[in-house]
Known about the structure:
Blueprint (H helix, E strand, L loop, with lengths): L1 H16 L3 H13 L1 H24 L1 H7 L1 H24 L8 H20 L2 H10 L11 H34 L3 H24 L6
Helix pairs in contact: 1-8, 2-3, 2-8, 2-9, 3-6, 3-7, 3-8, 4-7, 5-9
Amino acid sequence: MPSNFSLFxxxxxxxxxTPGPAVLYVIARSIDQGRKAGLVSVLGLALGTLFHVFAAxxxxxxxLLSSALAFNLVKYLGAAYLIYLGVQRLLSKEEVPAVTAAxxxxxxxxxxxxxxxxxxxxxxxxxxxxxLPQFVDxxxxxxxxxxxxxxxxxxxxxxxxxxxxxxxxxTLGRWLRGNLQFLRLQRYFAGWVYIGLGLTTALAGxxxx
Length: 209
């Protein structure tokens, strides 16, 4: 299985470094609210992704994908949630510098929203259902255990790559927030990115992360 594992690592890194909805979500959050919020969002997305890893390992992804009604229900719930986040951001007023307690509350919200965004993303279920079995060898042991192991490795690598995006975008965001004009425009940027991600989730047919 070493050759399979090397191929898995290569394919995973290529996929994770290619910006998709999850990466764009992290970038928007980091520019809008800073590096901490971006990193916390990364952890939230990772926890949401772990659900799909366990589901794939236990065969629940196959059940979800066998039902068009279940797939579409989760798909549109996820899209609606992303659009809701975007509209909420567009309608929000200019923020006043927050005290520590408010900052902690905002970070906890960023984490929970990240969990929900990936938890309600059936594209993630479809991805793991299609991707992970290609690197599983039934002759070397439990298929469930192999899928679980590969999925967890994928999530750990995603935390690293998405974390780099969060740090880079957050650093850029700190510089941009020193610009008064950007202060007026940042909520529109973040809002429309969230809405765009929601529409992409609802309409796009690709399975890129």
